[in-house]
Amino acid sequence: MCSSDVLPDDFTLSTLSKVSGELGALFSGKSIHGKSIRTGFVSDTVVANSIMSMYCKCGNFEESRKVFDEMTIRNSGSWNVLIAGYAVSGNCNFREETWEFVKQMQMDEVRPDAYTISSLLPLCDGDMGKWDYGRELHCYIVKNELELGLDSDVHLGCCLINMYSRSNKVVVGRRVFDRMKCSNVFSWTAMINGYVENGDSDEALRLFRDMQVIDGIEPNRVSLVSVLPACSSFSGLLSGRQIHGFAVRKEFNNEVSLCNALIDMYSKCGSLDSARRVFEDDSLCKDAISWSSMISGYGLHGKGQEAILLYDKMLQAGIRPDMITTVGILSACSRSGLVNEGLNIYSSVINDYGIEPTLEICACIVDMLGRAGQLDRALYFIKAMPVEPGPSVWGALVSCSIIHGDLEMQELAYRFLIQLEPENPSNYVSISNLYASSRRWDAVAEVRRMMKDKRLRKLPGCSWISINNKTHCFYVADKAHPSSTSIYNMLDDLLLTMNDAICSPHLETST
Protein backbone atom coordinates (compact mmCIF):
# COMPACT_ATOMS: atom_id res chain seq x y z
CA MET A 1 0.00 0.00 0.00
CA CYS A 2 2.78 2.39 0.94
CA SER A 3 4.85 1.45 -2.13
CA SER A 4 1.82 2.36 -4.25
CA ASP A 5 1.93 5.91 -2.82
CA VAL A 6 -1.38 5.37 -1.01
CA LEU A 7 -1.22 7.09 2.36
CA PRO A 8 -2.78 5.21 5.31
CA ASP A 9 -5.63 6.93 7.09
CA ASP A 10 -6.62 6.82 10.77
CA PHE A 11 -8.56 3.59 10.35
CA THR A 12 -5.59 1.84 8.72
CA LEU A 13 -3.14 2.95 11.41
CA SER A 14 -5.41 2.07 14.33
CA THR A 15 -6.10 -1.38 12.80
CA LEU A 16 -2.38 -2.08 12.27
CA SER A 17 -1.59 -0.94 15.82
CA LYS A 18 -4.16 -3.37 17.14
CA VAL A 19 -2.72 -6.22 15.04
CA SER A 20 0.81 -5.45 16.26
CA GLY A 21 -0.39 -5.57 19.85
CA GLU A 22 -2.19 -8.88 19.38
CA LEU A 23 0.96 -10.40 17.86
CA GLY A 24 3.26 -8.81 20.44
CA ALA A 25 5.23 -7.33 17.53
CA LEU A 26 6.80 -4.34 19.24
CA PHE A 27 9.09 -3.42 16.31
CA SER A 28 6.16 -3.30 13.86
CA GLY A 29 4.13 -1.35 16.42
CA LYS A 30 6.87 1.24 16.74
CA SER A 31 6.95 1.56 12.94
CA ILE A 32 3.20 2.23 12.90
CA HIS A 33 3.69 4.77 15.71
CA GLY A 34 6.36 6.53 13.66
CA LYS A 35 4.13 6.54 10.56
CA SER A 36 1.32 8.04 12.65
CA ILE A 37 3.60 10.86 13.79
CA ARG A 38 4.81 11.58 10.26
CA THR A 39 1.28 11.66 8.81
CA GLY A 40 -0.10 13.69 11.72
CA PHE A 41 -2.63 11.03 12.74
CA VAL A 42 -1.00 10.55 16.15
CA SER A 43 -3.16 13.45 17.33
CA ASP A 44 -6.25 11.42 16.46
CA THR A 45 -7.67 10.03 19.72
CA VAL A 46 -8.65 6.64 18.28
CA VAL A 47 -5.20 6.13 16.72
CA ALA A 48 -3.43 7.20 19.92
CA ASN A 49 -5.59 4.83 21.97
CA SER A 50 -4.67 1.95 19.64
CA ILE A 51 -0.96 2.79 19.91
CA MET A 52 -1.23 2.90 23.71
CA SER A 53 -2.97 -0.48 23.72
CA MET A 54 -0.24 -1.92 21.48
CA TYR A 55 2.52 -0.78 23.83
CA CYS A 56 0.67 -2.20 26.87
CA LYS A 57 0.21 -5.60 25.20
CA CYS A 58 3.89 -5.63 24.26
CA GLY A 59 4.82 -4.84 27.87
CA ASN A 60 6.26 -1.39 27.13
CA PHE A 61 4.25 0.60 29.68
CA GLU A 62 6.66 3.53 29.72
CA GLU A 63 5.98 4.29 26.04
CA SER A 64 2.24 3.79 26.56
CA ARG A 65 2.26 6.34 29.38
CA LYS A 66 4.29 8.73 27.24
CA VAL A 67 1.73 8.58 24.42
CA PHE A 68 -1.05 9.15 26.96
CA ASP A 69 0.68 12.19 28.50
CA GLU A 70 1.22 13.75 25.05
CA MET A 71 -2.43 13.41 23.97
CA THR A 72 -4.19 16.74 23.52
CA ILE A 73 -7.68 15.23 23.69
CA ARG A 74 -8.53 12.17 25.77
CA ASN A 75 -11.78 10.26 26.04
CA SER A 76 -12.92 7.50 28.38
CA GLY A 77 -11.32 4.97 26.03
CA SER A 78 -7.90 6.60 26.59
CA TRP A 79 -8.17 6.16 30.35
CA ASN A 80 -9.56 2.64 29.97
CA VAL A 81 -6.65 1.52 27.79
CA LEU A 82 -4.12 2.76 30.35
CA ILE A 83 -6.00 1.38 33.37
CA ALA A 84 -6.68 -2.01 31.76
CA GLY A 85 -3.07 -2.31 30.56
CA TYR A 86 -1.63 -1.63 34.01
CA ALA A 87 -4.24 -3.81 35.72
CA VAL A 88 -3.50 -6.95 33.68
CA SER A 89 0.29 -6.45 33.68
CA GLY A 90 0.73 -8.67 36.76
CA ASN A 91 3.22 -6.14 38.12
CA CYS A 92 2.43 -5.50 41.79
CA ASN A 93 4.25 -2.17 41.60
CA PHE A 94 1.58 -0.90 39.17
CA ARG A 95 -1.36 -1.53 41.50
CA GLU A 96 -1.24 1.73 43.44
CA GLU A 97 -0.49 3.61 40.23
CA THR A 98 -3.61 2.08 38.65
CA TRP A 99 -5.81 3.38 41.46
CA GLU A 100 -4.19 6.82 41.07
CA PHE A 101 -5.22 6.76 37.39
CA VAL A 102 -8.82 6.17 38.48
CA LYS A 103 -8.70 9.21 40.78
CA GLN A 104 -7.13 11.39 38.07
CA MET A 105 -9.72 10.16 35.58
CA GLN A 106 -12.54 11.43 37.78
CA MET A 107 -10.68 14.69 38.47
CA ASP A 108 -10.68 15.18 34.68
CA GLU A 109 -14.48 14.77 34.86
CA VAL A 110 -14.42 11.47 32.95
CA ARG A 111 -16.78 8.94 34.54
CA PRO A 112 -15.63 5.33 34.86
CA ASP A 113 -17.86 3.05 32.78
CA ALA A 114 -18.55 -0.69 32.85
CA TYR A 115 -15.26 -1.42 31.05
CA THR A 116 -13.30 0.60 33.63
CA ILE A 117 -14.92 -1.26 36.54
CA SER A 118 -14.43 -4.70 34.97
CA SER A 119 -10.73 -3.89 34.49
CA LEU A 120 -10.36 -2.90 38.15
CA LEU A 121 -12.31 -5.71 39.82
CA PRO A 122 -9.56 -8.37 39.29
CA LEU A 123 -7.31 -6.21 41.52
CA CYS A 124 -9.81 -6.37 44.37
CA ASP A 125 -9.29 -9.76 46.01
CA GLY A 126 -8.90 -10.15 49.74
CA ASP A 127 -5.31 -11.38 49.56
CA MET A 128 -4.12 -8.10 48.06
CA GLY A 129 -5.73 -5.93 50.70
CA LYS A 130 -8.17 -4.35 48.22
CA TRP A 131 -11.40 -5.71 49.75
CA ASP A 132 -12.67 -2.19 50.47
CA TYR A 133 -11.99 -1.14 46.88
CA GLY A 134 -14.10 -4.05 45.65
CA ARG A 135 -17.07 -3.02 47.76
CA GLU A 136 -16.67 0.60 46.66
CA LEU A 137 -16.75 -0.47 43.01
CA HIS A 138 -19.86 -2.57 43.64
CA CYS A 139 -21.52 0.44 45.27
CA TYR A 140 -20.52 2.56 42.26
CA ILE A 141 -22.21 0.03 39.94
CA VAL A 142 -25.44 0.16 41.95
CA LYS A 143 -25.39 3.94 42.36
CA ASN A 144 -24.77 4.60 38.66
CA GLU A 145 -27.19 1.87 37.54
CA LEU A 146 -24.66 -0.09 35.51
CA GLU A 147 -27.13 -2.94 35.08
CA LEU A 148 -25.97 -6.51 35.65
CA GLY A 149 -27.11 -9.27 33.37
CA LEU A 150 -27.75 -7.24 30.25
CA ASP A 151 -26.00 -8.64 27.21
CA SER A 152 -23.55 -5.73 27.11
CA ASP A 153 -22.68 -5.85 30.81
CA VAL A 154 -22.86 -9.56 31.70
CA HIS A 155 -19.07 -9.47 31.82
CA LEU A 156 -19.32 -6.95 34.65
CA GLY A 157 -21.50 -9.34 36.67
CA CYS A 158 -18.99 -12.17 36.09
CA CYS A 159 -16.16 -9.94 37.30
CA LEU A 160 -18.08 -9.14 40.49
CA ILE A 161 -18.75 -12.84 41.13
CA ASN A 162 -15.07 -13.64 40.60
CA MET A 163 -13.98 -10.81 42.89
CA TYR A 164 -16.21 -11.91 45.76
CA SER A 165 -15.28 -15.58 45.27
CA ARG A 166 -11.55 -14.81 45.43
CA SER A 167 -12.21 -12.83 48.62
CA ASN A 168 -13.86 -15.90 50.25
CA LYS A 169 -17.23 -14.14 49.99
CA VAL A 170 -18.91 -16.66 47.70
CA VAL A 171 -22.26 -16.06 49.44
CA VAL A 172 -22.16 -12.42 48.32
CA GLY A 173 -21.12 -13.56 44.85
CA ARG A 174 -24.19 -15.79 44.78
CA ARG A 175 -26.41 -12.79 45.63
CA VAL A 176 -24.96 -10.95 42.65
CA PHE A 177 -25.60 -13.99 40.45
CA ASP A 178 -29.21 -14.42 41.65
CA ARG A 179 -30.00 -10.75 40.97
CA MET A 180 -28.68 -10.68 37.41
CA LYS A 181 -31.50 -9.89 35.01
CA CYS A 182 -30.36 -12.53 32.57
CA SER A 183 -27.69 -15.21 32.73
CA ASN A 184 -25.62 -16.92 30.10
CA VAL A 185 -23.04 -19.70 30.11
CA PHE A 186 -20.34 -17.28 31.26
CA SER A 187 -22.18 -16.10 34.39
CA TRP A 188 -23.12 -19.70 35.32
CA THR A 189 -19.52 -20.78 34.82
CA ALA A 190 -18.23 -17.90 36.95
CA MET A 191 -20.54 -18.92 39.82
CA ILE A 192 -19.63 -22.62 39.49
CA ASN A 193 -15.96 -21.71 39.55
CA GLY A 194 -16.54 -19.56 42.64
CA TYR A 195 -17.97 -22.53 44.56
CA VAL A 196 -15.09 -24.76 43.42
CA GLU A 197 -12.51 -22.19 44.57
CA ASN A 198 -14.19 -22.01 47.98
CA GLY A 199 -14.32 -25.79 48.42
CA ASP A 200 -18.09 -26.22 48.07
CA SER A 201 -18.06 -29.07 45.55
CA ASP A 202 -21.65 -30.14 46.19
CA GLU A 203 -23.05 -26.71 45.37
CA ALA A 204 -20.82 -26.43 42.29
CA LEU A 205 -22.15 -29.73 40.92
CA ARG A 206 -25.73 -28.78 41.84
CA LEU A 207 -25.38 -25.47 40.00
CA PHE A 208 -23.84 -27.27 37.01
CA ARG A 209 -26.97 -29.45 36.79
CA ASP A 210 -29.32 -26.47 37.31
CA MET A 211 -27.64 -24.59 34.47
CA GLN A 212 -28.75 -27.31 32.05
CA VAL A 213 -32.07 -28.36 33.61
CA ILE A 214 -33.51 -25.02 34.76
CA ASP A 215 -32.05 -22.53 32.27
CA GLY A 216 -31.46 -24.97 29.42
CA ILE A 217 -27.94 -23.62 28.92
CA GLU A 218 -25.44 -26.05 27.45
CA PRO A 219 -22.02 -25.97 29.15
CA ASN A 220 -19.02 -25.04 27.05
CA ARG A 221 -15.42 -26.21 27.39
CA VAL A 222 -14.60 -23.66 30.09
CA SER A 223 -17.64 -24.79 32.12
CA LEU A 224 -16.40 -28.39 32.04
CA VAL A 225 -12.86 -27.41 33.04
CA SER A 226 -14.27 -25.31 35.91
CA VAL A 227 -16.54 -28.03 37.35
CA LEU A 228 -14.17 -31.02 37.06
CA PRO A 229 -12.18 -30.15 40.23
CA ALA A 230 -15.47 -30.51 42.15
CA CYS A 231 -15.43 -34.22 41.19
CA SER A 232 -11.96 -34.84 42.65
CA SER A 233 -13.00 -37.38 45.29
CA PHE A 234 -14.11 -41.01 45.21
CA SER A 235 -17.73 -39.92 45.62
CA GLY A 236 -17.42 -37.59 42.61
CA LEU A 237 -16.03 -40.20 40.20
CA LEU A 238 -19.44 -40.93 38.66
CA SER A 239 -20.08 -37.22 38.01
CA GLY A 240 -16.59 -36.92 36.54
CA ARG A 241 -17.23 -39.81 34.17
CA GLN A 242 -20.55 -38.26 33.10
CA ILE A 243 -18.82 -34.95 32.35
CA HIS A 244 -16.16 -36.84 30.39
CA GLY A 245 -18.90 -38.57 28.37
CA PHE A 246 -20.56 -35.23 27.66
CA ALA A 247 -17.20 -33.85 26.46
CA VAL A 248 -16.77 -36.81 24.09
CA ARG A 249 -20.28 -36.32 22.64
CA LYS A 250 -19.63 -32.61 22.08
CA GLU A 251 -16.16 -33.33 20.67
CA PHE A 252 -14.43 -31.29 23.37
CA ASN A 253 -12.28 -34.25 24.38
CA ASN A 254 -9.33 -33.17 22.21
CA GLU A 255 -9.02 -29.82 24.01
CA VAL A 256 -5.75 -29.93 25.92
CA SER A 257 -6.98 -27.89 28.91
CA LEU A 258 -9.99 -30.18 29.34
CA CYS A 259 -7.86 -33.33 29.03
CA ASN A 260 -5.47 -31.95 31.65
CA ALA A 261 -8.41 -31.37 34.00
CA LEU A 262 -9.65 -34.92 33.32
CA ILE A 263 -6.23 -36.40 34.11
CA ASP A 264 -6.13 -34.49 37.39
CA MET A 265 -9.71 -35.46 38.29
CA TYR A 266 -9.27 -39.17 37.57
CA SER A 267 -5.98 -39.27 39.50
CA LYS A 268 -7.52 -37.66 42.58
CA CYS A 269 -10.57 -39.94 42.33
CA GLY A 270 -8.29 -42.99 42.50
CA SER A 271 -8.87 -44.06 38.88
CA LEU A 272 -5.27 -43.92 37.67
CA ASP A 273 -5.99 -46.20 34.69
CA SER A 274 -8.61 -43.74 33.39
CA ALA A 275 -6.16 -40.86 33.82
CA ARG A 276 -3.53 -42.79 31.89
CA ARG A 277 -5.97 -43.55 29.05
CA VAL A 278 -6.74 -39.84 28.66
CA PHE A 279 -3.02 -39.00 28.74
CA GLU A 280 -2.02 -41.69 26.23
CA ASP A 281 -4.74 -40.81 23.71
CA ASP A 282 -2.96 -40.13 20.41
CA SER A 283 -5.33 -37.25 19.64
CA LEU A 284 -4.10 -35.28 22.68
CA CYS A 285 -1.45 -32.69 21.85
CA LYS A 286 0.31 -32.80 25.21
CA ASP A 287 1.73 -29.68 26.84
CA ALA A 288 3.85 -29.30 29.99
CA ILE A 289 0.71 -29.34 32.17
CA SER A 290 -0.37 -32.69 30.68
CA TRP A 291 2.95 -34.29 31.62
CA SER A 292 2.96 -32.64 35.05
CA SER A 293 -0.60 -33.81 35.81
CA MET A 294 0.20 -37.42 34.93
CA ILE A 295 3.48 -37.36 36.87
CA SER A 296 1.64 -35.96 39.91
CA GLY A 297 -1.02 -38.67 39.48
CA TYR A 298 1.62 -41.42 39.65
CA GLY A 299 3.13 -39.75 42.71
CA LEU A 300 -0.26 -39.48 44.41
CA HIS A 301 -0.67 -43.26 44.09
CA GLY A 302 2.83 -44.08 45.36
CA LYS A 303 4.16 -45.08 41.93
CA GLY A 304 7.43 -43.19 42.12
CA GLN A 305 9.34 -45.30 39.59
CA GLU A 306 6.60 -44.84 36.98
CA ALA A 307 6.66 -41.10 37.67
CA ILE A 308 10.42 -40.97 37.09
CA LEU A 309 10.12 -42.95 33.83
CA LEU A 310 7.44 -40.55 32.59
CA TYR A 311 9.56 -37.56 33.68
CA ASP A 312 12.48 -38.91 31.62
CA LYS A 313 10.17 -39.38 28.60
CA MET A 314 9.05 -35.76 29.00
CA LEU A 315 12.65 -34.55 28.89
CA GLN A 316 13.33 -36.74 25.84
CA ALA A 317 10.30 -35.15 24.14
CA GLY A 318 12.04 -31.79 24.51
CA ILE A 319 9.72 -30.37 27.16
CA ARG A 320 11.54 -28.46 29.87
CA PRO A 321 10.39 -28.93 33.47
CA ASP A 322 8.86 -25.98 35.30
CA MET A 323 8.14 -25.38 38.97
CA ILE A 324 4.90 -27.42 38.90
CA THR A 325 6.58 -30.39 37.21
CA THR A 326 9.43 -30.25 39.72
CA VAL A 327 7.08 -30.28 42.70
CA GLY A 328 5.14 -33.18 41.17
CA ILE A 329 8.18 -35.41 40.53
CA LEU A 330 9.81 -34.60 43.89
CA SER A 331 6.55 -35.38 45.72
CA ALA A 332 6.41 -38.71 43.87
CA CYS A 333 9.98 -39.51 44.97
CA SER A 334 9.11 -38.51 48.54
CA ARG A 335 6.05 -40.77 48.77
CA SER A 336 7.98 -43.72 47.33
CA GLY A 337 11.15 -43.28 49.41
CA LEU A 338 13.33 -42.58 46.36
CA VAL A 339 15.69 -40.19 48.12
CA ASN A 340 18.76 -40.46 45.86
CA GLU A 341 16.66 -40.19 42.71
CA GLY A 342 14.84 -37.17 44.12
CA LEU A 343 18.06 -35.39 45.09
CA ASN A 344 19.50 -36.02 41.62
CA ILE A 345 16.39 -34.55 40.00
CA TYR A 346 16.53 -31.55 42.34
CA SER A 347 20.17 -30.93 41.40
CA SER A 348 19.35 -31.30 37.69
CA VAL A 349 16.44 -28.85 37.61
CA ILE A 350 18.44 -26.25 39.55
CA ASN A 351 21.75 -26.57 37.68
CA ASP A 352 20.71 -27.78 34.21
CA TYR A 353 17.36 -26.04 33.73
CA GLY A 354 17.88 -22.91 35.82
CA ILE A 355 14.76 -23.32 37.96
CA GLU A 356 14.86 -21.20 41.11
CA PRO A 357 14.30 -23.27 44.29
CA THR A 358 10.94 -22.08 45.61
CA LEU A 359 9.40 -22.78 49.04
CA GLU A 360 7.26 -25.53 47.50
CA ILE A 361 10.28 -27.28 45.98
CA CYS A 362 12.29 -26.98 49.20
CA ALA A 363 9.35 -28.32 51.25
CA CYS A 364 9.35 -31.41 48.98
CA ILE A 365 13.04 -32.03 49.72
CA VAL A 366 12.49 -31.63 53.47
CA ASP A 367 9.53 -34.01 53.30
CA MET A 368 11.53 -36.53 51.25
CA LEU A 369 14.48 -36.55 53.66
CA GLY A 370 12.22 -36.54 56.71
CA ARG A 371 10.07 -39.47 55.54
CA ALA A 372 13.27 -41.46 55.03
CA GLY A 373 14.20 -40.81 58.65
CA GLN A 374 17.00 -38.38 57.77
CA LEU A 375 15.70 -35.62 60.06
CA ASP A 376 19.10 -34.11 60.84
CA ARG A 377 19.86 -33.92 57.13
CA ALA A 378 16.47 -32.28 56.54
CA LEU A 379 17.22 -29.67 59.22
CA TYR A 380 20.64 -29.01 57.67
CA PHE A 381 18.94 -28.51 54.28
CA ILE A 382 16.53 -26.01 55.85
CA LYS A 383 19.40 -24.00 57.31
CA ALA A 384 21.19 -23.95 53.92
CA MET A 385 18.09 -23.07 51.86
CA PRO A 386 18.52 -20.17 49.40
CA VAL A 387 15.07 -18.86 50.41
CA GLU A 388 13.68 -18.09 53.85
CA PRO A 389 11.87 -21.23 55.12
CA GLY A 390 8.11 -20.77 55.40
CA PRO A 391 5.26 -22.66 57.10
CA SER A 392 5.19 -25.37 54.41
CA VAL A 393 8.84 -26.23 55.08
CA TRP A 394 8.56 -26.35 58.88
CA GLY A 395 5.20 -28.12 58.55
CA ALA A 396 6.89 -30.87 56.51
CA LEU A 397 9.52 -31.28 59.25
CA VAL A 398 6.77 -31.47 61.90
CA SER A 399 4.95 -34.25 60.04
CA CYS A 400 8.11 -36.30 59.60
CA SER A 401 9.13 -35.77 63.23
CA ILE A 402 5.74 -37.14 64.34
CA ILE A 403 6.16 -40.18 62.05
CA HIS A 404 9.56 -41.02 63.54
CA GLY A 405 8.74 -39.98 67.12
CA ASP A 406 11.49 -37.33 67.37
CA LEU A 407 10.01 -35.07 70.06
CA GLU A 408 12.96 -32.68 70.15
CA MET A 409 12.82 -32.00 66.40
CA GLN A 410 9.04 -31.75 66.60
CA GLU A 411 9.22 -29.06 69.29
CA LEU A 412 11.85 -27.11 67.32
CA ALA A 413 9.71 -27.12 64.17
CA TYR A 414 6.57 -26.09 66.07
CA ARG A 415 8.36 -23.13 67.62
CA PHE A 416 9.30 -21.84 64.18
CA LEU A 417 5.75 -22.41 62.97
CA ILE A 418 4.36 -20.33 65.84
CA GLN A 419 6.77 -17.51 64.95
CA LEU A 420 5.68 -17.61 61.31
CA GLU A 421 1.94 -18.12 61.98
CA PRO A 422 1.22 -16.45 65.32
CA GLU A 423 -2.53 -16.41 64.61
CA ASN A 424 -2.86 -20.10 63.66
CA PRO A 425 -4.45 -21.93 66.63
CA SER A 426 -3.57 -25.39 65.29
CA ASN A 427 0.13 -24.85 65.98
CA TYR A 428 -0.54 -23.90 69.61
CA VAL A 429 -2.83 -26.88 70.20
CA SER A 430 -0.31 -29.27 68.63
CA ILE A 431 2.65 -28.08 70.68
CA SER A 432 0.44 -28.09 73.79
CA ASN A 433 -0.41 -31.74 73.12
CA LEU A 434 3.29 -32.44 72.62
CA TYR A 435 4.12 -30.94 76.01
CA ALA A 436 1.24 -32.83 77.62
CA SER A 437 2.53 -36.16 76.28
CA SER A 438 5.85 -35.37 78.00
CA ARG A 439 4.03 -34.30 81.20
CA ARG A 440 5.44 -30.78 80.94
CA TRP A 441 2.37 -29.21 82.51
CA ASP A 442 3.96 -25.78 83.09
CA ALA A 443 4.69 -25.50 79.37
CA VAL A 444 1.12 -26.63 78.57
CA ALA A 445 -0.26 -23.90 80.83
CA GLU A 446 1.97 -21.29 79.18
CA VAL A 447 0.80 -22.24 75.68
CA ARG A 448 -2.86 -22.19 76.77
CA ARG A 449 -2.32 -18.76 78.32
CA MET A 450 -0.83 -17.47 75.04
CA MET A 451 -3.87 -18.78 73.16
CA LYS A 452 -6.21 -17.09 75.62
CA ASP A 453 -4.35 -13.79 75.35
CA LYS A 454 -4.54 -13.92 71.56
CA ARG A 455 -8.19 -15.09 71.68
CA LEU A 456 -7.40 -18.07 69.49
CA ARG A 457 -9.74 -21.02 69.23
CA LYS A 458 -9.19 -24.08 67.09
CA LEU A 459 -12.06 -25.18 64.89
CA PRO A 460 -13.14 -28.78 65.61
CA GLY A 461 -12.16 -31.55 63.23
CA CYS A 462 -14.73 -32.54 60.62
CA SER A 463 -15.37 -35.78 58.71
CA TRP A 464 -17.83 -36.31 55.90
CA ILE A 465 -19.35 -39.04 53.80
CA SER A 466 -21.35 -38.78 50.57
CA ILE A 467 -24.47 -40.98 50.21
CA ASN A 468 -26.92 -40.70 47.31
CA ASN A 469 -25.33 -37.44 46.09
CA LYS A 470 -25.73 -35.83 49.53
CA THR A 471 -22.79 -35.01 51.79
CA HIS A 472 -23.16 -35.62 55.56
CA CYS A 473 -20.71 -33.75 57.83
CA PHE A 474 -19.76 -34.78 61.38
CA TYR A 475 -17.81 -32.83 63.99
CA VAL A 476 -16.25 -34.10 67.21
CA ALA A 477 -19.01 -35.23 69.63
CA ASP A 478 -21.56 -33.98 67.11
CA LYS A 479 -25.20 -34.93 67.76
CA ALA A 480 -26.85 -32.57 65.29
CA HIS A 481 -27.39 -35.21 62.61
CA PRO A 482 -30.98 -36.56 62.60
CA SER A 483 -29.63 -40.13 62.68
CA SER A 484 -27.05 -39.46 65.42
CA THR A 485 -28.67 -41.87 67.91
CA SER A 486 -28.50 -44.76 65.45
CA ILE A 487 -24.95 -43.79 64.46
CA TYR A 488 -23.69 -43.78 68.06
CA ASN A 489 -25.45 -47.10 68.76
CA MET A 490 -23.70 -48.61 65.75
CA LEU A 491 -20.35 -47.20 66.92
CA ASP A 492 -20.88 -48.73 70.39
CA ASP A 493 -21.62 -52.10 68.79
CA LEU A 494 -18.50 -51.82 66.65
CA LEU A 495 -16.35 -50.95 69.67
CA LEU A 496 -17.67 -53.96 71.56
CA THR A 497 -16.98 -56.21 68.58
CA MET A 498 -13.44 -54.81 68.23
CA ASN A 499 -12.74 -55.25 71.95
CA ASP A 500 -13.98 -58.84 71.81
CA ALA A 501 -11.76 -59.49 68.81
CA ILE A 502 -8.70 -58.09 70.60
CA CYS A 503 -9.35 -60.24 73.67
CA SER A 504 -9.97 -63.38 71.61
CA PRO A 505 -7.40 -66.09 72.46
CA HIS A 506 -7.58 -67.35 68.86
CA LEU A 507 -6.50 -63.96 67.52
CA GLU A 508 -3.75 -63.66 70.11
CA THR A 509 -2.36 -67.04 69.09
CA SER A 510 -2.52 -66.24 65.38
CA THR A 511 -0.89 -62.89 65.96
TrEMBL record:
Database matches in SUPFAM superfamilies: TPR-like (SSF48452)
Keywords: Repeat
PPR-type repeats, residues: 44-78, 184-219, 287-321
Claim: Zinc is one of the keywords in the record: no
GO molecular function: RNA binding
The organism's place on the tree of life at top rank: Eukaryota
CC annotations in GO: mitochondrion
PROSITE patterns for the chain: PPR
Example GO biological process: RNA modification
Similarity section: Belongs to the PPR family. PCMP-E subfamily.
Protein name: Pentatricopeptide repeat-containing protein
Species lineage: Eukaryota, Viridiplantae, Streptophyta, Embryophyta, Tracheophyta
